[in-house]
Amino acid sequence: MNKKIRLYFCAIVLPLSMQGCFDSGETDYERQVREDDEAITAYLEANDIEAEKASSGVYVEKLTENAQGKQVVEDHVVGILYTMTHLTGGHEIESHTDILAPLRFSNSFDLNLNAIHPAGLNYEIGGMREGEKFRFYIPSVQAYENYSHDELFDSYSNFILEVDLVEVKTEEEIYEEEMDTIEAYLELNEPDAESYPNGLYYVLKEEGSGDQPNINSQVKFHYTRKYLDGTVIQSTLDGDPEQVHLNDNQLVTGFKNGILLMEEGEKAKLIMPSKLAFGKSVQVIPQALREQLAEDGEIVQTKPYSPVIYEVELLEIN
Fold first, then answer.
1. Is 288 helix (H, G, I), strand (E, B) or coil?
2. Closest by alpha carbon to 74, among 107, 115, 111?
3. Which of 124, 140, 220, 314 pairs as cysteine with 262 (C-beta 3.0–4.6 A)?
4. pLDDT tens, residue by residue, 40-96
5. DSSP structure class, residue 241
6. Are the CB atoms for 313 and 222 separated by under 8 Å?
7. How far apart, in whole angstroms, are the C-alpha atoms of residue 285 and residue 153?
8. Cα dihedral sign for 145, 142, 277, 184?
9. Structural contact between residues 182 and 229, judged by C-beta atoms closer than 8 angstroms
10. What does the DSSP assignment read for 87-110?
11. Contact indicator for 310, 258 with CB cutoff of 8 Å
């Protein structure tokens, strides 16, 4: 529509409606915030639900309160059970109900990166106490925005997260648990592992015949990263080996420290707690998104607070 026609159209329609004749000044993001909020409030009204809107735009419905429970504070590690459903249609996307292994993530923001996706949960989990159950109505702008998954949800989806906060711990308590788990693994599988003060365990699998690298070395190696239960997270064995400069900080601390103990041609197993590996990383709900987000470079593949094993073959030192 050219300018003259548009002005003429507005002149005719103006008495009936102002909409569309003047720029409202609403950005795409502001429009999405408004549409999300309208969808959530309509759902709440239709279902006669009382929920309080937080400054993040997330609506919070308190189902079970526990005034005596431990309050979540910055850098606490929280463990939750949850059910995630789509606001529209109400179909369940994912649930996690294993009380012995709650989903863990950090109540923190590092370098402006969220500790969990969807971000809306990270914003509001700090309002809970251990033993409480809340329901969060999370707008798309605090979830996955235009991101979509063929099997899980469309772009700009709003979600309902029903959350049981079953665990609130410090990172020191989590580290002690990890070390207990590692020691139990070693007792069953690698009783002769050599230990180091930082928490690294080293197991020689096949001797090498070359030199040891130093911090300025370039090294070429194959590796397989696993969880303690044997689940493979990542491996180079079906492709080309990795090649890195050890002083470039491309490797996690435990992996780099372990390679510095090896000789060229050696094979070894390195077992380490998460603080030497990927630490708190980023948690994901639904968990089925993790692999895709990792492939897209949005997160690391390894789950937060996970001890890991590296099986390494040091091929070459330069």
1. helix
2. 107
3. 314
4. 999 999 999 999 999 999 999 999 999 999 999 988 999 999 999 999 988 999 999
5. P
6. yes
7. 12
8. negative
9. no
10. TTT--EEEEE--TTS-EEEES-EE
11. yes
Nearest to 59 by CA among 51, 47, 68: 51
CB 299 within 8 A of CB 284: yes
Which residue, chain included where needed, has tokens 């001890």? 307
DSSP summary character for residue 285: S
Interatomic CA distance for residues 3 and 243, integer angstroms: 60
Cα dihedral 203/205/208/213 (nearest 10): -30
Confirm if 274 and 250 have CB atoms less than 8 A apart.
no
Tell me the β-bridge partners of 164: 81, 133
Tell whether the torsion through CA atoms of 217, 222, 226 and 230 is positive or negative. negative
Q: Which two tokens stand for residue 138?
A: 């999370």
The pLDDT-based confidence of 4 (bands split at 50, 70, 90) is: very low
Cβ atoms 235, 224 nearer than 8 A: yes
Q: Rounded distance, CA 175 to CA 163, Å?
A: 24
- 197: amino acid identity, one letter: P
* Partners of residue 220 on adjacent β-strands: 243, 316
**H-helix or E-strand spanning residue 306:** none
pLDDT digits (tens, 9 = 90+) for 120-149: 999 999 999 999 999 999 999 999 999 999
The CA-based diameter of the chain, rounded to the nearest angstrom, is 89
Q: How confident is the model at residue 24 (pLDDT cuts 50, 70, 90)?
A: low
Displacement of CA 185 from its chain's centroid (Å): 25
CA angle 302, 304, 309 (to 5 degrees): 50
What is the model's pTM?
A: 0.87
Span 224-236, mean pLDDT? 97
